[in-house]
Design a protein that fits this description.
By secondary structure, the chain is an all-alpha fold. 80% of the residues lie in helices and 0% in strands. Keywords: Membrane, Transmembrane, Transmembrane helix.
Length: 533
Amino acid sequence: MFESLAENIRDKSGGKLPFEDTGIKFRAFFTRISENKRMGSDILFMVTYMASIITADVSRPEIFAFTATRKEYITSKYIGKVETFVKRWNYNYAKALTMVAERISNPMLSSMFTRYGNSISSGVPDDEFLLLELSTVRSVYRSHFEQGIEMVKKWGDAYIALMLSATIVSIIIMVSIAIYAPDDLSSTLNTSYLLTIGISIFGIGTMYHAIPGDQKCHELPGQGSYEQRMIQKMERFIVPTVIITTILLFIGGFNAGLIFLVIGILLVPLGIFGFIDDTNIIERDNDFSVFIRSLGTIMGGKGLTVGYALAEIDTKTLVNLSEPIKAAYSKLNLGLDENLVWNRFVDECGSNLISKYLNIFRDSIKLGGSPSEIARIVSSSMLEQTLLREKREMLSTGFIVLLIPMHVAMIGIFMFLFRILISMSHAVTDVMASFDAASAAMSDSVTSVGGTMTGMVNIFVNFPEDQMGTYIAIVLLIITLSNIIAGKIVKGGANYLYYAFGSIMFTLTGLVFIVTPFIVDMLFQIPTFGGVP
């Protein structure tokens, strides 16, 4: 039915669906952004792979053929294009690399292809170029990563300032409505929503553009560490429960703070497993560079196979990888298939770096490369990334430590002023009613004074409490979602960290929302006038 409807619309609109070109452009734009985020690390993976297999004395066509099959690298499709130019169109590798480089939008990859083409034209041996290029790529990757970290330092502070500014503007609009009670209230509130959303998008987009990419989980289909599998199982029930519960509470007219609190509490299990897995991956990656170097050194120095070399590894110094290493050794010792054993090892670790670099090590060994030399290349590249990740972790920890109290402060200021305005509105309304009741029994002169006083305090009488309650809930929701996304972007890692930050931010928002009225009633008392409240 939908296919026939789409075809009818396509026929009537000249063969295209409405906004089809716009959708294609948007998809291409976001795809290019996603590729550029991963390009730096994938270039490092690719060059490490090429430098590792060259130790097996493979030929140039084999280098490009094997690299083109590594579909887990974004860069492999560009290597595939080089292969197409060479094998189908009979170009030489130097010319093919130059042609592909001219069509690549990413400057880092384009520069690498250009250098490779020039080296081939100059007669530089592939092994000499690749080892030198690996050092160059590491330096460029380090430079870009550190530049991104410095940018995030500045934009992290700028994001906090922007969100505080958005909160202050929303507060000013709320106070202005309490004072002036504009006729076109919906237009004023919609302007505030758009302003808050625009500031949030600008701050988040700028940080996302600045922060370097660092995929922590391998995200292989149907695989993952224990925590990742638990998250996958639980989210099938928890996420629908959150959605259904939120809808029911909203329809039932429950307090917005209660809804926020329930969402936060329901996401807590997913958040806990998310933080645990993220921490485990970081620690396992730190140990893996030592493990793979030791494994390669033992294999090369003693001439042992992988199974026997594992028995020589001192797992006491590899606390975070000791269990997966022991499990892999036991399975290999039983004669199980080596591919299945190492796939299980990667599965249990759940790490993207371990998945990539272990496959590089194993493929190079299969091709006949030197284990010790391969291990040195692989461990050095991984160590480069883990050291840079430590810098990012230090930055993200500082940002999150600042973000959480600032989130509470923003929500608290908003709610305190809102409750104070409500208290003032109720008190002024009561005073106005008392004056109106007393004016009937007074003389005209006294009534004139009462009328003047009534005009002076009338500014808080028409405060639209119901509409402003909805306004507060929507603005707090925008701020909460924005801070969740900002925390995840700076922290990096897998998408399950959205659950982790969501549980924290929604819980804090709900608690402040619920607790604030009691605190305001306790601390903020409207003075009485002649015994009249």
